[in-house]
Automatic annotation (TrEMBL):
Entries under InterPro entries matching the protein: ABC_transp_permease, LivM-like
Name used for this protein in its record: Amino acid/amide ABC transporter membrane protein 2 (HAAT family)
Keywords for the protein's UniProt record, in alphabetical order: Cell membrane, Membrane, Transmembrane, Transmembrane helix
Membrane topology listed for this record: Multi-pass membrane protein
Source organism of this protein record: Bradyrhizobium stylosanthis
Compartmental location: Cell membrane
Higher taxonomy: Bacteria, Pseudomonadati, Pseudomonadota, Alphaproteobacteria, Hyphomicrobiales
Gene Ontology CC terms: plasma membrane
PANTHER family cross-referenced by the UniProt entry: ABC TRANSPORTER ATP-BINDING PROTEIN, HIGH-AFFINITY BRANCHED-CHAIN AMINO ACID TRANSPORT SYSTEM PERMEASE
Length: 339
């Protein structure tokens, strides 16, 4: 047995070292990306560009968290936007009503989101795919209706009025636009890095197995319900982070943050960028925001233009942009090796 265990350890050693190398590579890429983004204010005074990056940070966290469900687990959620809105409202209300430091409000918001997601997820992940999608949508509509009807607490259809206090902490003043920009970039990079580690971990490969064949995963001893619930809660936490970034950006929270169209935008972003590559949702986020900002300057019929874009990706490429590029490079590489 000792010899067998030693042989097994020798076989696993290259895989473990490769995984460790991949982690270090991901951390290095994350540090470089943050350095590039953080230095952007030094080279440009464009407030519009910094605002665009902040919006990309909020929606990028939201869309990538949705891809943990859609791309890695095979769970298409039509109500994932409820956690984006929950993060924005919980953070804003904690700051307005309690006046606690921002890091405390941040952690408290994540705790609230985790609790709500655990309750909702425990119900939804037991359902088949189509029922899962529509029940999550039903929960989002319930939360949106609660926001509208509880006007004395949430502000109703006017949203949270009076702004969100931004007291300085640890020398960081989020009332300063540059500080807010750098903090948003830091949250984006940390969130993406954490989700990347989840996707590349043994748990991430368990999710892929559940996506491909949940029955076989169950036969192999995997607790499918627990794995789905875990990733549901994790995805909710990262979506909530995106909501907090958006709340800080607009200094408030509005019912539109929890409306079903937010979930639709998340699905659209993943369709644009691709779900089989990790950075596909980030590419889709940039594309969608660029399309919205560009099209609305020239026409009020931006919905028609976005519909044409959806048809192009759905019927033309039949995959997201980054998925298409990755597949094209793989084909070129295989063709080169065949020669």
């Amino acid at each position: 047995m000792t010899e067998l265990e030693a042989g097994r350890a020798e076989r696993l050693a290259p895989a473990r070292s490769g995984a460790a190398l991949q982690r270090y590579r991901d951390v290095l890429i994350a540090l470089i990306a943050f350095a590039v983004l953080a230095s952007l204010p030094l080279f440009t005074g464009s407030k519009a560009l910094l605002d665009f990056v902040i919006r990309c940070s909020a929606y990028g966290l939201f869309a990538t968290s949705l891809n943990l469900l859609v791309g890695y687990t095979g769970l298409t959620s039509f109500g994932h936007g409820m956690f984006f809105g929950l993060g924005a409202y919980s953070f804003g209300l904690i700051m307005q009503k309690l006046g606690v430091p921002i890091p405390v409000a941040f952690v408290a918001t994540l705790a609230i989101t985790a609790a709500v997601a655990a309750v909702i997820g425990a119900i939804c992940v037991r359902l088949k795919e189509i029922y899962f999608a529509f029940v999550t949508l039903a929960f989002q509509m319930l939360i949106h209706s609660t926001i509208l009807s509880w006007a004395s607490f949430t502000g109703g259809d006017q949203g949270l009025r009076g702004g969100i206090p931004r007291p300085a902490f640890l020398g960081i003043n989020l009332a300063n636009h540059v500080h807010l920009y750098i903090a948003s970039c830091a949250l984006l990079i940390l969130g993406l890095l954490a989700m990347r580690q989840i996707a590349q971990s043994p748990f991430g490969y368990t999710l892929r197995m559940i996506r491909d064949n949940a029955a076989r995963a169950s036969f192999l001893g995997i607790d499918v319900w627990r794995a789905k619930l875990t990733v549901f809660v994790l995805a909710a936490l990262f979506a909530s982070m995106g909501g907090m970034v958006m709340a800080l950006f607009v200094s408030g929270a509005y019912p539109e943050f929890a409306y079903w169209t937010i979930s639709g935008e998340g699905i659209f972003i993943n369709m644009l960028g691709g779900v089989s590559t990790f950075l596909g949702p980030m590419v889709g986020t940039v594309l969608l925001l660029l399309l919205n900002d560009t099209v609305t300057r020239f026409t009020e019929y931006h919905g028609i233009v976005l519909g044409v874009v959806i048809l192009f990706f759905a019927l033309g490429l039949r995959k997201g942009l980054l998925d298409f590029v990755a597949e094209w490079f793989a084909q070129r590489r295989d063709a080169g090796e065949g020669r």
